[in-house]
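Hi V.,

You were right to ask for the full record rather than a summary. Here it is.
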Amino acid sequence: MTLVQPPSTKEDILQYLMKHGEATAQTLAEMLGVSPQAIRRHLKDLEADELIEHHAVQEGMGRPNYFYCLSRKGRDRFPTQYDTFALSLLDTIAETVGKEEVKTILRKQWERKALNYRQKVGTGSLQDRVDQLVKLRQAEGYMAEWHAVDASDEYPVAGFIITEYNCAISHIAESYPSVCGHELEMFQVALPDCAVSRTHWIVDGEHRCGYLVQER
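Predicted structure:
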């Protein structure tokens, strides 16, 4: 008989911080349905393992609030499918032919991938295509999801937000930042009848990348 392992509260904490950027112990306790005392024990363990870090925010004359977020080591626990081998390969190519040639190679790679996305998302409704695109990204190691947005002052036209809470090529992006621009272009090619714009960007220090997709 196969025993089913209970879900780990520590993993739940890491997942929550990955999606929301930062949180206090009290917020984590409320959202995960765990006592504040238990949450603080888990946070202490995760800090000891260097998976999270915290900063204090002073509000008024009372005790400061402590906000917890993932450390670089904590983020690296999430899928990074391409990083290690691909970065080494790109560095080798750069040493051989130069960084400018590597940029050209990366552009050609993303153009090819974009056309592959377009073929796989098909020609259904925009919601179906966005859903399929997110599933393709999830298969590549991205913690991705989507949700619909109604027309409002913030979004004059209704559409969909694609959110990615991790970067499966984060180490590559640090050495070759042009790949981030190519990702936006990829989505535009994959959804040719849509306008795609970036709403959030991990490169700018935010905890997620976000893309707004609207029909033209």
